[in-house]
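re: ur question from earlier - yeah i can do the single chain one, its not a big deal. heres the input i used so u can compare w yours
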Amino acid sequence: MQLLEVHDLLEELFLAHQTALLDRNLPAALSCLDQFAELLAAHIADEEKVVLPAYAARVAIPEGGKPEFFHFEHTKLQSSIGEVRAMLLTLVPAGHTLENGSMLAPVDPQHVDVRGLLELLDQEASFKDLLRHHDARERRFLYPLLEAALNEIEQQQILVQVQLRSND
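and the output i got, formated as tokens:
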């Protein structure tokens, strides 16, 4: 299904965030992370409100693909990204802010705490593991089983519902 294309975009946004972290460009890292978090939240909402109800109604649910697994992982992903963001903000030296348009005055990379940066990257490794596990579950169960259970018109209806939600 086309909804999986969002996963590729999410991966690219997170890569841009981590690349900015490696450059110690905290404003760019925060901007990319916020874009990632916003897209992730919208995608999770689409799955929770449109895709998973259709999946639960139409698919003979296998053991590893229970809807509650997806719900749990969505909750964990959203809380984890909040923790990552909070850790990123702790890297900002005293007297600086990354919020509200300070992209024009980036923090001097020499003032970024390297230990804190490494701790953040470790935390992000755990987050990425969860994200990869979730993506694999969706690619193995949710999307292929739903696609097999729906005819082409029903698949298009789901895509239209998701598009209408994103226009709200």
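The CA atoms of residues 158 and 164 lie 10 Å apart. not sure if urs matches, ping me
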